[in-house]
């Protein structure tokens, strides 16, 4: 690899050709402020906060956008640079409704951080007239868009287009009217938006935030007449710590449970439990579909490939973009919604509680889960199955609000009945995890033997490649599964909706044939969800993934079908996977939605 | 006032002593590198405003790897006070297209486009006819090159070459980050030569008359002649081909109405020169260059209103992507209004001039970088008019 030598602030730096000045500065340990730059996204070069001086060049250079060249002399802190940087921040602030103390992003805002660092004299610029008549779009159950806080960095636009292939957000108008807009300026809830929250995860300011349900949850907790149950999604436990003083990648499962109990939840249960249940249902569904196609010669196209259904961002995406493939989506509800349906039926019955008095809360790495909980289909218990969805970030806020010293909390276990889980459930939080969990169970069901991978770690489906494909040949089937003997199962895993789009496009054009496709809307899977701690980047996602696989490895039960509470649930209540009762409570249907 | 003008009028562009196709055929007899060197020696610099040496640009594109390359004629002509490209396209479009063909032959590009300002749509049929004739002539000459027409979107910024390319690719007309420059990665990320309408004609002519004859006109840094669009308070507005490097005082003597108080050289993105400096200013790269726009203002004009108009123009025509330009333009406009209405002290103008320095240094493209030209020259030269 060709390298390039340059100097930055008199320091000689040697880096790979093709890197930017900003990359080189970071390698050399020299800090340059940025706003529009994001490591997950293509270069924009529009905020101009990162400008530096290049000796011999007439204008300043945007360090995030200019590639290094041999012999470049860069100065990052000259008087010119300092003045330009301060001016640019002053200009941004004159366009910005800076009421930090009232702002949801107070203390979590990149603009605020830069202002704190670089602005030390009062700004004399005139606040722009547009600030006097702004509107806040709060139509979406997941996301709030406040243009008066927007600095036009276009990170959200790039996220929605580049990573998610949705383009719900675009740049409209020019000049002083330029803004971030939706199709025809409609409300966010009325356009093709998957509620994935990836834009929220990358917005540097308070312009895009999750719709929070913190007050609603406090109200429920403080109401003596309710019984508040909470479920915790697999990916939360490997990221919550980041908001509360722990290093990236530290697992805080036990402290999270303690904190929830301290907050006053009556029962702290686990979405992992219903993740195991999902595997039982979805695995059985896959085998049923395979059987129909292989032995009954059913119409293969509508049954296979089967895709997973646990990511609500993915569900909304396919409803908008590939409505012809809705029969291919597993009819299983997501673990969150399975949990919700059981909380107000099975759990209520077992605990002898009036389901009307149960408030069901979930802690999710995801903003799309808020939308999912609001879907009218999600009322199988006769009530709203999940009442409130909080993101990892919202939970961290509640913990701070309550004055809990998270660091020194003791570890506690989830409560029982719907709190036990296997390692297979934990890995739902990482891309490839549902696939791996399903294989651990389905393979064993069909052959009576464990999957042929050391320690049950199915490495081929792990990793961070955008699309991963794997084939597994089934051999030595038990008699009732003989139709699968010698069948080579073709599997695909995609994360991030652009990758999902590519896989579906290949399927649609007949370029690829799969039996089973796992799709997670967010890069890295749920661990990179739109409700997870900010910032996000590939390194952070990798550390969270490592933590997830450690959690799995440390579990004494590693396979969903060995979860004793799940087995009890079938015995006492559901009877069998795909039973009538299961269908009633655990399965759902999808709706074709408009495409713009 | 007696006319003591020393402004020299020339007639290269519209002159019809030479047949366009003969010019092209002759040029294509020559050695390619020799012809590019001739262009470099002629000192021809782009006539669209930025003034990049044309021969050098073509040399880069010729040397750029790959066999898919593009030639683009920038006919977006949006600079306030400029209308010379329109006249060229009306009267000498064949020379423009032949110049593009020549560049195609030299660089190995096989496809060209003319990007026509949306407001010129009334010329469309005329241009298509001329273009088809030329495409036919290329075919007969066995020159593997053809030209297509793309209509602009009505935004001034789309005249900036990389925004123009984005717009041609059906994206938002926003300038790109540079490098890479279009000669290396332009349309469809392939090597692309973008030149102004006028530049194509001169390049073709130089291939025939030679560098020496061309460079005999003008001055050392500003060789040749160019078209000027003369407007404002003048008895004879219009398009004139004049030798480069004239003194502004000579220009005013020729075109002024006897009461000229200031000349805006180079349109809204250019500089304003007050009467007392007419004598010191040369129109050309050693003084103040222009893409052609020359606006004369007499003593009845309020320079505050002139500046106000320019700033409104920039505030609306900025693409809006980068901070210094998007917000800067609005602040400058609000700022002069505030000073005028006494809600800000006069010294606020100095603060604003500091901000134009940041706009010049840190904006992404030429639009934001040059707003300070008009702002600072008008504010400095007509300080009282800004305040009272
Ligand atoms: C805001 C802006 C507008 C421009 N508009 C035009 C235009 O209308 N026509 C033009 O030829 N060049 C225009 N330019 C200059 C082009 O970017 C480019 O330099 C030119 O087309 C190159 O051709 P030339 O070298 O022949 O001048 C503009 C530049 C900027 C920054
Ligand atoms: S977005 Fe940031 S700078 Fe703006 S008000 Fe909120 S915290 Fe303050
Ligand atoms: S939530 Fe997802 S789909 Fe919706 S605008 Fe944001 S990135 Fe796009
Ligand atoms: S909404 Fe946020 S991410 Fe999008 S442009 Fe505005 S500040 Fe940037
Ligand atoms: S300087 Fe102005 S026109 Fe140019 S890129 Fe920036 S905002 Fe757009
Ligand atoms: S961070 Fe480089 S221009 Fe925004």
What features would you describe in this structure?
The complex is a heterodimer of chains A (596) and B (388). The radius of gyration of chain A is 25 Å and the shape is globular. Chain A has helices at 21-27, 79-94, 110-118, 155-163, 198-202, 214-222, 240-243, 253-263, 271-295, 300-303, 312-321, 335-351, 368-374, 392-401, 423-426, 433-447, 497-508, 538-553, 564-574, 580-586; strands at residues 3-8, 11-16, 51-54, 61-62, 73-75, 136-137, 143-146, 170-172, 179-181, 208-210, 227-232, 267-270, 306-307, 358-364, 388-391, 467-473, 488-495, 516-520. Chain A has a five-stranded mixed sheet with strand order 2-1-5-3-4, sandwiched between helices. Chain A contains 20 helices and 18 strands. The longest helix of chain A is centred in the middle third of the chain and has 25 residues, at 271-295. Chain A has 596 residues and is an alpha/beta fold. Chain A folds into four domains: 3-90, Ubiquitin-like (UB roll) (Roll); 128-210, Alpha-Beta Plaits; 214-273 and 336-404, Rossmann fold (3-Layer(aba) Sandwich), CATH 3.40.50; 279-334 and 421-586, Fe-only Hydrogenase (Larger Subunit), Chain L, domain 3 (3-Layer(aba) Sandwich), CATH 3.40.950. Chain B has 388 residues and is of the alpha/beta class. The longest helix of chain B has 24 residues, at 84-107. In chain B, the strands form two sheets. A five-stranded mixed sheet of chain B has the order 6-5-9-7-8. Chain B folds into three domains: 20-215, Rossmann fold (3-Layer(aba) Sandwich), CATH 3.40.50.11540; 225-298, Ubiquitin-like (UB roll); 303-387, Up-down Bundle (de novo design (two linked rop proteins)), CATH 1.20.1440. In chain B, 57% of the residues are buried. Chain B contains 13 helices and nine strands. The A-B interface holds A 43-49, 51, 59-60, 62, 65-67, 80, 83-84, 87-88, 91-92, 94-95, 124-126, 128-129, 151-152, 154, 171, 173-178 and B 155, 157, 172-174, 177, 179, 314-324, 326-331, 334-335, 338, 344, 348, 351, 354-355, 357-358, 360-364, 369. One iron/sulfur cluster (SF4) binds at residues 150-156, 180, 203-205, 207-208 of chain A. FE2/S2 (inorganic) cluster (FES) binds at residues 34-37, 45-50, 62, 64-65 of chain A.
